[in-house]
Amino acid sequence: MLVPLKSLQLFGLTALVAASLHGQTYWSTTAPDCSSLMDGEQPVPITNSSGTVIGYSCWVSGTFIWLAAGGAWGSFVRVAAPASGAIGVDYWFYDMNGNNLSLDTSFGNSPAVTPGNEVNYALSANQPSQVNLLGLSGTNHSVTETGSVWAIFYCPDATTCGNVLPQLLYSALPTIPWSLSVPIAWDDALWTQWSAVGIDDGASHRVSLAVYNEDTTSTRPTSFTVQVYDSNGNLAGSGTTPPLNPIPVFSDGSYGEGGTWADLLSNVVKTPLPPGVFKVLIDGGSTLSAAEVLQITGASATTLQVAYDTSSSASASSAARKANARKTGITDTPKPVFKALPR
User: What pTM was computed for the model?
Assistant: First the structure.
């Protein structure tokens, strides 16, 4: 039997749409086993536009503890869906005190600009994306805005979520001739003391650092001690960060975002920094945190490896690396389906 050409075209179009929808499906119709992720997590219900549960997703979450957008600076968040499956991507923006921050954003090379404190979309397997953070919404972006990005990634299974690896890039091109990539601080890899090794001679070699308060057990801001040890292991100087707000717990049981801070090391430790390589220790006592340390050398820069560490002030209660309690709020809140990445 002959099939009319229009019917063939319609069949092909329908198949293409079905394949596209299937490719964006970052959930499973039955609840997947997510127990290997985020300290034995439970899957999140995914709902359609009517609020009906259509599936369940595993998830992973974490924070890019410092963003710089506007003025000479731009931040760019990149991620790709693993080969094993599609993912849902959800970014939330906060200022240095943990309050909602409305930024103008765009995708890749698209000129379209969207304001808001949240960006979410779906990616097919192997599909990459870049979200450009342009500056404060409602402005001409002439002033640099700073803060943090909380990211949640939803997946049809634990394997796919385990392979998600986003990155944030800082760039001030062409004013500063480098761009810099920093990793995400996953919410199941928090600790109380962090250290790195750098060089800062006040000239061609500079060290900067960022600290983010991940504590959910206190309502009071915490200052973090920053210590520098010379090449012989002797304490060469110390300073403290400003008080950083903890992660708030709201009346409905959900969690907000903590405070973040960044500066040059020499602006924190006021005494002369030791020559050559030295160790930087960021000490929160018993307060959970995330940290990053950057090394600037002339016209280049790099993200230094930040290690879990233990200082004499560490309490017995912080004997193990901990997951952030915010996971409870994620699991208990159904999420509507995200649209495909804008093209």
Answer: 0.87
